[in-house]
Amino acid sequence: MxxxxxxxxxxxxxxxxxxxxxSDLVExxxxxARLGARMIIQTAVEAEVEAFLGRARYQxxxxxxxxxxxxxxxAGHRNGYxxxxxxxxxxxxxxQRPKLRGTTEKFASRLFGTHVTRTNALESLVIASFVxxxxxxxxxxxxxxxxxxxxxLSKSTVSTICQAIRTEYAAWCERDLSGxxxxxxxxxxxxxxxxxxxxxEPVLAAWGITTDGKPVFVGLAAAASESTDAWEDFLAGLIxxxxxxxxxxxxxxAPGIIAAxxxxxxxxxxxRCLIHKSRNVLSKISKADQQAVKDDFWKVFDTTTPELEDIxxxxxxxxxxxxxxDAFAATWEKQYPAAIKSMLTDRQSLTPYLRFPAxxxxxxxxxxxxxxxxxxxxxxxxVIGRFPGESSCVSLVWAVLDRAARGWRGFTxxxxxxxxxxxxxxxxxEPPTQIRTVTAPTVTPAADAA
Length: 450
Fold this sequence. Notes:
Helices cover 47% and strands 13% of the residues. It is α/β, with parallel strands linked by helices. The protein has three domains: 7-62 and 69-170, no CATH class; 175-271 and 368-419, Nucleotidyltransferase, domain 5, CATH 3.30.420.10; 274-366, no CATH class.
């Protein structure tokens, strides 16, 4: 680092330089957020040092002060920087902490304390600046109001970020889905605070696995609730843009999702998330028996045991596991009738995945990995509290999910699996058309006499 370039100015140059390359927008936003956090923290610490010494960087003590309102000029001078690592929700970042020499009293940052270990307050400013209505003026004000005008990004950078988000997100929401052919469609929602005087509201999400085994992020939309109408509108919008019905829909047991799938994706099979069902059952079990019931629950769906390992995926395997459901119910029904009622109510939706290739079973019997991604989104935004608006919320959730989707693992498609999926597609979605038989009209005696 050159002697005459402050760390703050160097970081600002790094941020502006991100937009001169060919990097993907979402990757750029991730980098901007990290560099922005460093820049804000760096600016704040340097401002504190300036206030402590009573003079700006490179300003001599003899020329500082001079007025009643002027800061107190202290002895001492800056003596370079030392790297300090700060833990943030985006991961550890390193800032250059100014070192002082010749001071008569020890400098301690009032913002971070003597030892900087973690900050959420300043990081929230960085995140909020990119989601506060996606407005250039709001982005500038979010930073300038908190830490002074020098902390703000350049107008060109702010304008580039906002316009790029608006353009790319709008295009993503309207893109043609006719080329997306899914075997598996996962549906879930996560709740965020995005409207004044309202509680948390859902953002609906859809993602899937294509016939080539590739993961794809399909759709995202805000809703007032997880009602049937909300999910039906969401799914119908995907179909209208060309998405074809999948073989299997995996979701939790929310009534709105179930009803909407029956209306819009009636030919697709529906798999109830086993992890959600396990939680439902265990919520009705006393703590003393929870581990035993949990172990028995997952044994029901363990198809690697000797008695089931030779049964190929299909209706015979479904029936074998349904017999285990009956055995599970018989074991625990007397002690926990409410838990067993919950299990048996959804029993038919717990086993459709067993008709699919065995190597896919552990990943299509639950919707948990999107929950982990939603958890990452909530972790990123929890420092904001409430979003300034719906578009801000959905845009940030989209950016995080779209980024995460690039790291999702696909499915292995063996020749055997491809044949099985092809047969299921023909049976479920492309059934042969029945040939109508035309019969000759029957002539009654009365008509013949006439």
